[in-house]
């Protein structure tokens, strides 16, 4: 049997054709130094199914390394598990359907893995955010941050338990298969509970959780400027309604990720937990400020403030105060 070095997994639900077409074209044309790769497109119950769409059929006909599988259960984590269990590679790479990697991505990964065997997960040190349909000047800087733009000039990695700025995000994340399978087992038995993006919800803490799991198990994690990805952002994702949701979703899962991987950090999280009355009062006050201030960036920061405390309550399995749930509903954050 031919050994496969990299399994590239792309999970998609009702994708924008412009984005997925560009992503697949770039992924199918990734260069390698002679080793075998496979590409797995996981259809997370799209309507119409991806396998029935002409441009997808064209890729399947022209690139033998691509296969498509379906996962009907909603949630990015469910789709990733299905992709992982269908893969055969020594290393797993996750690209979203809006990611366009540079053609030497795999070659750089191979070089990094030879030079730094202690690093178990790698991500791009260069992420260029491409606003396909433009973006309002008012929110451009914040949007670049929230869509994970980064410009590292050196290879950086660490093995510290606390989150480090050199730790990779989910875009273009490469993980060693054996330890990733152990993580998946813990997801399946309910030890780790984050599902990732699901329908209209934009929680994304499972990426953070995977990286921290590798740290917990003695591996380092890092980024390299030789790993470069373009993150394609269409107009609908720069809308105020979307940026509100993603500001909430990228923050709310952080405490859960941390506590489930490192229970010893629980005492620190509890210091940031507000009592019910104070949390309810603060949420109402924050909602009022959001309605009265015009600065959208300040609104998103206030939303993140609510999200972090909301996430702490969830991390400790405490009932979210009714007033806070009301505020989240009114602001349409979930």
Automatic annotation (TrEMBL):
- What range(s) does the Glycosyltransferase 2-like domain occupy? 7-124
Could you confirm whether the keyword Acetylation appears in this record?
A: no
Give one GO term, molecular function aspect: hexosyltransferase activity
- Domain of life the protein comes from: Bacteria
Q: What CDD domains does the record point to?
A: Glyco_tranf_GTA_type
Q: Which Pfam families match?
A: Glycos_transf_2 (PF00535)
Sorted UniProt keywords: Transferase
What the entry lists under InterPro entries is as follows: Glyco_trans_2-like (IPR001173), Nucleotide-diphossugar_trans (IPR029044)
Please name the PANTHER family in this protein's record. GLYCOSYLTRANSFERASE (PTHR22916)
Instruction: Please identify the protein, giving its name as recorded.
Output: Glycosyl transferase family 2
Q: Please report the organism this UniProt entry assigns to the protein.
A: Olivibacter domesticus (Pseudosphingobacterium domesticum)
């Amino acid at each position: 049997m031919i050994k496969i070095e990299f399994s590239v997994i792309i999970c998609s639900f009702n994708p924008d054709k412009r984005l997925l077409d560009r992503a697949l074209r770039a992924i199918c044309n990734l260069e390698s130094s002679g080793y075998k790769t496979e590409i797995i497109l996981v259809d997370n119950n799209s309507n119409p199914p991806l396998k029935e769409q002409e441009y997808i059929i064209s890729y399947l006909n022209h690139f033998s390394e691509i296969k498509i599988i379906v996962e009907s259960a909603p949630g990015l984590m469910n789709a990733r598990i299905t992709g992982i269990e269908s893969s055969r590679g020594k290393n797993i790479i996750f690209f979203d359907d809006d990611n366009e990697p540079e053609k030497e991505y795999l070659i750089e990964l191979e070089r990094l893995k030879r030079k730094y065997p202690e690093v178990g997960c790698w991500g791009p040190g260069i992420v260029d955010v491409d606003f396909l349909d433009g973006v309002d000047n008012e929110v451009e800087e914040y949007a670049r941050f929230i869509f994970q733009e980064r410009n590292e000039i050196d290879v950086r990695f660490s093995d510290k338990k606390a989150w480090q700025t050199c730790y990779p995000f989910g875009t273009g994340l490469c993980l060693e298969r054996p330890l990733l399978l152990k993580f998946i087992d813990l997801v399946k038995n309910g030890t780790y509970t984050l599902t990732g993006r699901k329908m209209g919800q934009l929680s994304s803490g499972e990426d953070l959780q995977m990286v921290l799991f590798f740290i917990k198990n003695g591996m380092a994690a890092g980024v390299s400027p030789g790993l470069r990805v373009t993150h394609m952002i269409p107009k609908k994702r720069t809308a105020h309604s979307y940026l509100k949701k993603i500001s909430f979703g990228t923050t709310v899962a952080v405490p859960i990720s941390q506590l489930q991987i490192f229970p010893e950090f629980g005492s620190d999280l509890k210091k940031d937990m507000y009592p019910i009355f104070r949390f309810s009062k603060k949420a109402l006050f924050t909602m009022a400020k959001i309605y009265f201030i015009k600065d959208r960036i300040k609104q998103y920061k206030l939303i993140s403030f609510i999200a972090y405390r909301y996430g702490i309550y969830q991390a400790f399995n405490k009932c979210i105060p009714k007033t806070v749930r009301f505020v989240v509903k009114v602001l349409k954050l979930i």
